[in-house]
Amino acid sequence: MPASCPLCRAENETVLWQTCRLRVIAVNDTPAAPAFCRVIWRDHVAEMTDLPAAARQEMMAAVWRTEAAMRRVLRPAKINLASFGNQVPHLHWHVIARFENDAFFPDSIWAASRREAVPELPEGWQRQVAELLAKGEETDGLV
């Protein structure tokens, strides 16, 4: 585990759900994109293909589970899924709820903003998503 890796350190995170191999956190450092989660593999690996097949399936199942829970709670116009790791080469997926009135829509949240806007979210959405993740329901039928 590299000392410089912020995803290995796991400091000051709002953990919504975790297993021995991964964790799902609410990302609170992007105010213009307030409905944002990250699924983080615990071991320091850079790419999906660094994992054995069963672990890749586990990672993607967690991404889909997070997407489904966010869709159910937030009712967004779209969910964006992304795995970059260019700046932090530690395997993680972004799960981002998008709304037609968010600051960037329809562009990426990393693009220049189009408007001053922060969508109104359901109160306690992070707790609600965490509860759905903990229930371990299948992703089918969550919306």
List the defining traits of the structure above.
alpha+beta, HIT family, subunit A
Secondary structure elements and pairings:
Elements lengths: L5 H4 L4 E5 L3 E5 L9 E6 L11 H22 L3 E5 L9 E7 L26 H11 L8
Antiparallel strand pairs: 1-2, 2-3, 3-5, 4-5
Helix pairs in contact: 2-3
The SSE order reads HEEEHEEH
Structural class: alpha+beta
Radius of gyration: 15 Å
Lateral strand order in the biggest sheet: 1-2-3-5-4
Tally the helices: 3
Could you describe the largest sheet, including whether it forms a barrel?
5 strands, antiparallel
Query: What CATH architecture do you see?
Result: 2-Layer Sandwich
Shape: globular
How many β-strand runs?
5
Between the first and last Cα atoms, what is the distance in angstroms? 38 Å
- CATH level 1 class label: Alpha Beta
Number of domains: 1
Uncertain residue ranges: none
The named CATH superfamily: HIT-like
Roughly what fraction of the amino acids lie in strands? 15-25%
GO molecular function, one term: catalytic activity
Protein name: HIT domain-containing protein
Pfam families: HIT
